[in-house]
Design brief:
284 residues; alpha+beta; L,D-transpeptidase catalytic domain-like; 8-stranded mixed β-barrel; 19% helix
Length: 284
């Protein structure tokens, strides 16, 4: 098969797969449909060319610039009782070496009994910057108190573990935050990243020059090259069966075959449950 035939085959695969996904889940296959949606106009910042998509059931954050894929990172999402929402956000600021300020929430309060037998309700205490801080070395701030941040519990990555925010390995969070600062620009002069590490007890607040759009999505079905990935239904929001998907594939001229290497899936695979991978081919 020459290059033109290969390109035509991929185009037909993409077109057929897009129709299948739209038909099954009523969502466009285009991973960046959110990018064209209007956000509020309260900010004077221009929209950045860099943007982020977080696929909840894939436990993965993808970074893009001008539609070009840059990098993926494994993440933890909200636990079942504090589900990460599906919505569009934007990021305008971040903090290096942040304090953790306890929220006014029931999960952050506990009942205690004093020496006289009186019941008291105590809230969580603030945590200063350092290795014990649950936010890790950096927090990236979105609307509605929603954060992307590092963690002092790296074993939770790839699981439903947070109170709704997005957790990352701390080194990955630092890498992502620095890339965003470089690509989106900062209102303050860009300093050497090593400064944040050497002065790890001091909080540095950074305002971005442009607004970074962030979308949290729920896509159990994804396509990489000529493979279809079926992620576990983390929140039971998108019930799909292999049989139904296979029927739709046939309807749109595709053959779906089990793949023998399900242990190596997509650019990042950190799911606590198994993601299934299937080979896609055009029916003759």
């Amino acid at each position: 098969m020459d290059d033109k035939q290969v390109q035509k085959t991929y185009h037909l695969l993409d077109d057929a797969t897009n129709k299948v996904l739209v038909d099954i889940v009523s969502e466009p296959f285009d991973a960046h449909h959110f990018y064209t949606k209007a956000l509020d106009n309260k900010s004077d910042r221009k929209v950045s060319r860099v943007y982020i998509e977080i696929n909840i059931p894939a436990y993965r954050l993808d970074l893009y610039e001008d539609g070009r894929y840059l990098k993926s990172y494994p993440v933890a999402v909200g636990m079942l009782s504090f589900k990460t929402p599906r919505r569009n956000f934007y990021m305008e600021r971040m903090e290096w070496n942040p304090w953790w300020i306890p929220p006014n929430a029931a999960w952050c309060k506990k009942k205690t009994i004093d020496e006289e037998g009186n019941e008291k309700i105590e809230g969580c205490k603030p945590v200063s910057p350092g290795p014990w801080n649950p936010l890790g070395p950096v927090k990236m701030i979105l609307q509605s108190s929603f954060l992307i941040h590092g963690t002092n519990k790296p074993k939770t990555i790839g699981h439903r573990a947070s109170h709704g925010c997005i957790r990352m390995y701390s080194d990955n969070a630092s890498d992502l935050a620095w890339k965003i600062m470089v690509l989106a620009g900062t209102k303050q002069p860009l300093v050497n990243q090593e400064l944040y590490r050497t002065k790890s007890r001091k909080t540095f607040r950074v305002s971005l020059l442009t607004r970074v759009q962030v979308a949290t999505v729920y896509k159990r079905l994804e396509v990489f090259d000529n493979f279809l990935l079926l992620h576990p239904d983390a929140y039971k929001w998108q019930p799909l069966s292999k049989e139904r998907i296979r029927e739709k594939m046939v309807e749109f001229g595709l053959a779906m075959e089990d793949d023998d290497e399900n242990s190596s899936i997509g650019p990042i695979h950190s799911n606590p449950e198994k993601t299934m991978r299937y080979s896609l081919k055009l029916n003759p």
